Amino acid sequence: MKILFVCTANICRSVMAEGILKKLLSTHIGTHAVHVSSAGVDALEGLTPDRNTHEICNRHSVHIVPHRARQLTKTMLKETDLVLCMAKIHKQSILNAFPKVSKNIFLLKEYLREHPIDDISIKDPTGKSIKHYEICFKEVEKEVKRIFPLIITDKTKK
Fold it and tell me: What is the four-CA torsion angle of 79, 25, 94, 154, rounded to 10 degrees?
């Protein structure tokens, strides 16, 4: 199973989500068949995550050091089983750019949720204080932990 997290520049939210899910997967035997990555709808190839993203991830023992930003491509979408976007604008951007590749594209906060919620986008902390990065991290972590058991269960059925 291949999971791709998507945000704008691929230096903050999607990087956090990728790192958190990889950390969760590393603690579970038999989940090595899940491949996790991230990309941005407007990324500058090769950029490292921003300073505050590094600091927050380090505080939570989430390893993101080797990460480099990647621009989302049609090939990535075709090769991925599940695309999880951080905000409505990312999902809409993908659907506008690649209308024929619309299957399995969801917002992280809407994916596998039983009841709809009002605020389904994760706010971008870029350019804000470290406090906003911490809030963002906690929100992303909460959502990744929410879907983690469901992803593992779904993966084991295949």
Answer: 70
Buried b (16+ CB within 10 A) or exposed e, 113-144: beeeeeebbbebbbeeeeebbbbbbebbbebb
Q: What is the pTM of this model?
A: 0.93
Q: Determine the Cα–Cα distance for residues 138 and 151; give it in Å rounded to an integer.
A: 19
Q: Judge contact between 10 and 38, C-beta under 8 A.
A: yes
Q: Give yes or no for residue 72 having a pLDDT over 80.
A: yes
**Cα–Cα distance list, 51 to 9, 87, 101, 130, 133 (Å):** 14, 22, 33, 9, 10
**Does the pLDDT of residue 156 top 50, yes or no?**
no
pLDDT digits (tens, 9 = 90+) for 78-117: 999 999 999 999 999 999 999 888 779 999 999 988 888 8
CB 105 within 8 A of CB 127: no
3-state helix, strand, coil in the chain (%, to 5): 40, 15, 45
Reading the block at residue 118, the tokens are 């009002």
Strands 82-85 and 2-7: parallel
